[in-house]
Amino acid sequence: MIEHITPILVGTLGAATPLVFAGLGELVAEKSGVINLGVEGMMLIGAIAAFAAAVATDGNLVVGLSIGALAGALAALPFAILTLSLGANQAASGLATTIFGVGLSAFIGQSFVSYSLPGVKPLAIPILSDIPVIGPVLFHQDIVVYLSFATFAVLSWVLAKTRIGLVLRAVGESPESAHAIGYPVMAIRYGAVLFGGAMAGIAGAYLSVVYTPLWVQNMTAGRGWIAVALVVFATWKPGRLMLGAYLFGGVTILQLHAQGLGIPISSHFLSALPYIATIVVLVLISRDRKLLQLNLPASLGKSFIAGG
């Protein structure tokens, strides 16, 4: 049984890593009061930009991730200008960002369909990687998976224990009050949105440079939407978001292993399982209105114009 469980758990962490990065970035943006539905598009732009950069540098991972993060942030910039400076509807602008990202990545990606990258080999941590079951799962992963652990730890600490986290939450709860006591609400929201874009870009870069590693049109396959749903599922808490990402990553990997385990279920149903799970979880979470209202940033989705 263990010989089946271990590869499933190992694969779960890899499958969940894009969701962790994209979800944490969206969580920060929403903590500031901005909901960005353009995560899918930003992931795709980050994916093709990172892949093109990696191809040009013989598979350099650092360059690929850096360019992916930069491309994701640049993709988020028009959304930020529209919604924050011009007061446009956040939902409509986010959807437009996704549509733009899908189209732009497909156009640029036409030149890279025939390319592939060597990928990134897992990095085994001495001694710890030899622990039965836990060792191969937690301590024999690629470097970007370890980076996701570090990002989660740092971000959780910043949000819960630092002045930056306190100010971010204050802006998300009441931008008018934050502005009245001297906090630069617009600058903070711009920073949060661009950070979310950079994280989405890293998520896309991981898919194209490490996880696959090649370019396929629409390769995110709805992961951006799942990342947005994870923020609600987690009720805007990083720890729950991390657990949710691994839950959905596990469902994704399980559907790949199911037929090998002899489970007599249609492959089409198994392929749809991660998205079915997303819908079911959101329905269950939405039933607990008190929990949502308790953790929902009060100004989420509402425009703020200084002096308006």
TrEMBL record:
It comes from the Bacteria. It is a multi-pass membrane protein. InterPro entries: ABC_transp_permease (IPR001851). Keywords: Cell membrane, Membrane, Transmembrane, Transmembrane helix. It holds the Pfam family BPD_transp_2. The keyword Plastid does not apply. The keyword Transmembrane applies. It is found in: Cell membrane. The chain crosses the membrane at residues 6-25, 37-56, 62-84, 91-113, 143-160, 187-209, 215-234, 241-259, 265-285. This is ABC transporter permease.
